Give the backbone structure.
Amino acid sequence: GAGVSQSPRYKVAKRGQDVALRCDPISGHVSLFWYQQALGQGPEFLTYFQNEAQLDKSGLPSDRFFAERPEGSVSTLKIQRTQQEDSAVYLCASSPYRVPGANVLTFGAGSRLTVL
Amino acid sequence: SQELEQSPQSLIVQEGKNLTINCTSSKTLYGLYWYKQKYGEGLIFLMMLQKGGEEKSHEKITAKLDEKKQQSSLHITASQPSHAGIYLCGASKAAGNKLTFGGGTRVLVKP
């Protein structure tokens, strides 16, 4: 597609539920990033994929967070047993660069998760 | 934790006036990136600076990186309502390193 597509745009979950957020990067983009943006804050890095390989997951806040990109294109961020502090906008970004030094990322519109 | 400090946190300017946003790091940066975020949307890339003393302009927006590569400013000349949004600076500490973002500066332009 022309841009990075994320779904769902909005998700309301009850505390304890599992959620899955999807990211369709720009076709052919090698690098894919997930960021978490709390209300009124800047985005915080979660994890990074180069093709299907998850090269950096240092930002995942707990073992309840899991991300995958099995075929090197679409990625899914899964949050198990959601907690209220997980409420945030989850942003996906992609880049055509193998080594993300250029860091000119194209972002999706985000998935806004609200945990009640 | 935020390693980049942005100031001011928010800004209201009259249409036609200039504005400046600052982004400061305590460490030397490999690259400095400016993004704009409209409310409820993703981030739009504006400019990238990598060399000390570098300055880039696009339309009415100018970004500068200081010689030490620890501070950057974003200047908008003759602001318009379309300039409203959240401006975020992002930085990488080395080639191949992930971007870390500042807390953002919320800009409102009053017509």
